[in-house]
Request: fold
Amino acid sequence: MANFVTNLFRRNEKLTVDEFIVKKTITSFFFLLVFFAACIWAWKWVRRQPSQNGSRADVHAPLRTVLNTNEIIFSKIFSSNHLTKTYPASAAVKQVRPNGSIGMRNNLDTAAWKMYVIRANGDTLALDLDDIKKLPKTDVTFNFKCIEGWSQITHWAGVRFSDFMKFYGLNAEASMKYLGLTTPDKEYYVGIDMPSAMHPQTILCYELNGRPLPLREGYPLRLIIPVKYGIKHLKRIGTMYFANNRPPDYWAERGYDYYSGL
Reply:
C-alpha cells in the first residue's frame, strides 16, 4: 500500500479514474489534518494569552481585540437615521420575560427613589419620577433581544433620552463619548456609547404595556435602547454619569462585547 501511494504521487503519466480519486482523497485528508492542527495550535495559543485588563473573568487579549475592532467598525457605520423595526402595540407579548435580576435583589424604597445625574462639572441633579414625566411621553414596540438567544416583541413607554438631555440642559454631557448607568445598589452597571444613547428610539422607560413598570422589570425607571442587546437595557436606574473614557460595564468585565450593538 505504501509503495502504491508513493508511486501514485511520483507518476507523471496520465492517471486512471480510480487513481485520480485516490490521489485527491489523500490530498484532501492531508490538508484537513493540517487545518485541524492549525486550529488546535491557535486555540492553545489564545488560551495562553493574558486577558486585556488583567482580570481572569475577561476574555483573552486577542479575542478582546477582535471585539474592540468590531466596535470601531460598527460605530463608524452607525446612524441615528437607521431605526430599529417597530410593531403595533397589539403585537407585544403580555407576559414579558425578564432578562436578569442583578442590581434588583435588594429591597428598594420606591417612594424615596431618585435618579442622580452627575454632570460634567461635578454638580448632581436629583430627579424623581415626576421630574421625568414632565417631558413628552413616547413609546416604542420592538423585538427585544437577549444575548442568551431569546427575543420578544415588547411595548415600552417613557421619555426619549435625547429629549431628557435637552430639557435638563445636558448639552456638554451629550457631547461626551459615553454614558454610564448604575443601579442604586451599584451591583449592576453599564457603559454606552453616546451616539447609541442619543438614538431617537432610546427612552427612559417607566411603563410596560401601558402600565407602570413591574418591579422585576426595573420600576420605577429603566433604560430601553433598541439598538443594543438586553444586557445594556439597565433596570432600576440609580445614577447616571458621563465620560470620555469607557465607563465600567458589568458584562464586558466578564468577557462579553462592550458595544453589544444590533
Observations:
- The first strand starts at residue 115 and ends at 118.
- The longest helix spans residues 17-48.
